[in-house]
Write a structure and sequence with these properties.
The complex is a heterodimer. Chain A is mostly helical. Chain A has one domain. Chain A has 8 helices and no strands. In chain A, helix 3 packs antiparallel against helix 7 and helix 4 runs antiparallel to helix 5. Chain B has one domain. In chain B, about 70% of the residues lie in helices and about 0% in strands. Classes of the chains: A mainly alpha, B mainly alpha.
Chain lengths: ~190, ~210
């Protein structure tokens, strides 16, 4: 139990997927100009990350290892993720139209979200068991959501703040992200 | 005709530079630029995948049905990424270990998907080749510049040779925040240079001094 908690906290804070590992920077920079948008993207991505970890794990150990086709890992995983996103989209459209209208726009973008592919690949390369990889997926998802929501808050302040002319626009976003990342670096002593 | 190819090529280097101007494909460029060797390695791996998939897709563009083009693109890109992954693992194991998960992540790099979908899906292979080489080199040179800065201040080394004494190095440059800060400053400089060039062009040649300062 303690072991699982450690994996979760490590994935959320210590190895935060966006701010420490630099994964999934495109949605981090592109989708955080409004808090609502950031939350929607965060929820949709979190859902797909956990689902993808749950599906690719049995696929890898059940099919690819017995057949000795581990080298096709990247190819198989990205296809599975793409198919999964499509299925989730169809399912939500039919059975939960309200949720679909909130999440739908973001779902299509998630296929090429690095965080999903990276967390499935990491589950395998870290030799986690099934439960551990689910917890790890949830941790990555939580970290992604946290970073997105914090960044969207920061950006709302940036809009009204006096900024030196040469940093206006994109540069100030990266500087802000750098400072945010500096504060997350403070968590690095939390778990050995 | 030759001039046309050349202008397609230089387009990716500066005017439509994927990192500085369009700001896509950021993940790998911030993560691996802690040393110049990683920067060059990542740049060329990416360039290989980009070139091969652009040329391939452009050659088959008339046979790929429009409705299922994205899955086909992904399979082609993933196949070339796997090739690079296996080659590096076999011949440059240390580089492959340093790049880690960012090597397979080339598949979901927005630069490749963006160029393939918007450019090579409706252009002949020669144009696609020039575009891919330009974009790839545009990506690589920004990576090299970033890794030079981060390696120099963070580790005190230049191409692996120690030039700065240990006690003057700033460790944060090779850690996560350094990447964001350095990239932010590089973009700021590039925007400032573009603005200065634009102002110079508008004012005409006689007031060059104003633009230069």
């Amino acid at each position: 139990m303690i072991d699982l908690l450690k994996i979760f906290i490590k994935a959320v804070l210590v190895d935060n997927v966006v701010l420490i590992q630099y994964i999934a920077l495109c949605p981090f920079m592109g989708m955080t100009n409004e808090t609502d948008k950031a939350t929607g993207m965060g929820v949709a991505t979190s859902f797909v990350i956990v689902l993808a970890c749950a599906v690719t794990y049995p696929l890898y150990y059940g099919i690819m290892v017995p057949l000795h086709i581990e080298f096709l890992q990247t190819l198989m995983f990205i296809l599975v993720i793409a198919a999964l996103v499509q299925l989730v989209e169809f399912y939500l459209k039919k059975s939960a139209p309200a949720l679909y209208s909130a999440m739908g726009v973001y779902l299509a973008l998630i296929t090429t979200n690095c965080a999903v592919l990276a967390s499935t690949l990491n589950c395998i390369s870290k030799n986690y068991n099934y439960i551990q990889s689910l917890v790890y997926g949830a941790g990555v998802a939580g970290g992604f959501m946290l970073a997105l929501v914090i960044m969207s808050g920061v950006r709302e302040r940036i809009k009204v703040a006096p900024i030196p002319a040469f940093l206006k626009g994109k540069p100030i976003l990266f500087i802000a992200a750098g400072l945010l990342s500096l504060s997350f670096l403070g968590f690095s002593g939390l778990i050995k | 005709m030759k001039h046309n190819y050349f202008s397609i090529f230089t387009n990716g280097l500066s005017k439509e530079n994927p990192l500085l101007v369009i700001s896509i494909g950021l993940c790998s460029s911030l993560a691996v630029t802690t040393s110049i060797f990683n920067g060059i390695g990542m740049g060329f791996s990416m360039m290989f995948v980009l070139t091969m998939s652009e040329v391939m897709i452009s050659a088959f563009r008339k046979h790929i049905p429009d409705s299922i083009r994205l899955p086909i693109f992904i399979i082609i890109i993933a196949a070339f990424t796997t090739i690079v992954q296996l080659l590096l693992e076999a011949y440059l194991p240390s580089l492959s270990a340093a790049l880690g998960v960012f090597l397979p992540l080339i598949v979901v790099n927005c630069i490749i998907m963006g160029r393939v979908d918007s450019y090579s899906a409706n252009q002949p292979p020669m144009n696609a080749l020039c575009d891919a080489l330009g974009m790839g080199l545009g990506y690589t040179w920004v990576l090299c510049l970033m890794s030079l800065i981060r390696e120099f201040f963070g580790n005190g080394t230049f191409f692996g040779i120690h030039v700065l004494p240990e006690k003057y190095t700033i460790g944060i440059f090779t850690k996560a925040p350094g990447g964001f800060l350095v990239f932010g400053l590089i973009i700021a400089v590039s925007i400032a240079m573009n603005n200065a060039a634009k102002a110079r062009a508008e004012k005409g040649p006689e007031c060059c001094e104003g633009g230069k300062k």
